[in-house]
Amino acid sequence: MRATLGGQQETANHGARNDEVLAYAQLVCTLTGRADVTGVTFTHNGQPIGVPRADGSLTQGPLTAADYTTLLATAPPTTHS
Fold it and tell me: Closest by alpha carbon to 2, among 44, 45, 48?
């Protein structure tokens, strides 16, 4: 299943702010964390819109958590005393 999110505001086509990228990343990672969601598409008035990936490029295609791997925090190394 693919999740499609629609809204009334379009994404700016001239680049995305860092907080905008993080917001899309959070939505995509949350939704694709479900076993039944394989990708997320964002729409405006029923038409796909360009959504920023972690690298700042825009895509209208389905997004997955892999599009935001560089933003995902990794656990710090464990130290033993």
Answer: 48
